[in-house]
Specification:
With 457 residues, this protein is mainly alpha-helical. The protein has helices spanning 8-21, 25-40, 46-58, 63-106, 110-138, 146-160, 166-182, 227-252, 257-269, 276-290, 296-307, 316-328, 336-368, 373-401, 417-431, 437-453. It is globular.
Length: 457
Amino acid sequence: MDTTPPTFFDAFKFWLKLGFISFGGPAGQIAIMHRELVDEKRWISEGRFLHALNYCMLLPGPEAQQLATYMGWLMHRTLGGVAAGVLFVLPSLLILIGLSWVYVAFGNVPWVAGLLYGIKPAVAAIVLQAVHRVGSKTLKKPAQAPVLWAIAALSFVAISVLNVPFPWVVAAAALTGWMGQRWGLKQFAGAPGHGAGGHANTGQGVPTIGFVIDDHTPTPPHARFNKARLACVLVLGALLWLLPMGALVAWQGWNATLTQMGWFFTKAALLTFGGAYAVLPYVYQGGVEQFGWLTGPQMMDGLALGETTPGPLIMVVAFVGFIGGWGKQVLGPEALFLGAALAATVVTWFTFLPSFVFILAGGPLVESTHGKLQFTAPLTAITAAVVGVIASLALFFIVHIAYSERAGGLFSSRIDATALLIATLAAVALLRYKLGVVTVIALCALAGLVARLMGLG
């Protein structure tokens, strides 16, 4: 097995490719990274991949983008981490700026609505696939890991029925995992998973050999904890926030739209525990109700665009920024597009900057805990809880595609058999025939367009 370390250019090409094919939300994106980095390229072992992933799951912000940053940093130092994280976001930003311009300039087009009608069931199927991937890797069989199954079930109920905040679910799961390892429960000793695909090295006793960085590879010098390096990262991160914010205040004032966008999305970036869906209500409240950057229906259209473009779902904030910058004419009526694009860029900068700081500052601490059960057991329990959280998200999508939006209220309208059929076929294609996420999205979009043209949806 070839274990030649990849060059920076090899990794750069992969991160650029990932930026354009990272569909399917965090579960799909993590699955793509797992398949490429672990199963095919074998740059990172299963254990190192999942250990990094579980750290990213604890952080506010988009875990898939943070995981890409972590992997890039582990292989090629700070430059590798920055390149991986930026390339994960940049294609999505450019695509969303273009789509947002089409949206405001030309309005809704029937054939676009048809494509979106087919894509929504595909997204539901992708989330179901994520439940299967995470559950099969983390929970194993009920008889082998009854406590982990209970954690997943209780998390599902807590999120979907009781509306318990996600941080409380994480805290309860972590406490359960810590107590489990204290009591000597073996089910907390396995390698957890989240959204990863493939079959290599799943904690079933398969030796992790043939990897560039395997479970027993010594921590690279740049990934070892150093107080001076930590201080340098924190100071640089603070400057990268203060300088743009100071420039916005000096240029337009504290109450200007761009300045308030920067401040608001800095706060949003620190509240996104549980992924994009956990923070969307906060963004809706601020963007729609408090600042009036866009309307409620526009927010929903932006969410649909975010679901159907590559990159993290939280990139919907770029749509919010673009629409807000366009409507508020931040650079004047003669420069609507430039002002809107600038607003989208400002929003993206302040949303993702904390993620880079979290990874580059916290990565060495995480590497020092690799293989230590007192740290990995709580993370295993948290990953089990995530299974229940993703299952609740799948239920949310299925309920919302099961009823026709054209016939009135959600539960007062007729059941949309066409959308459910598309979702079922998409799930079969993903789970049974292992079709790629991009292929399934394209086929479902085509099916949705045909259904609309035939008057079936």
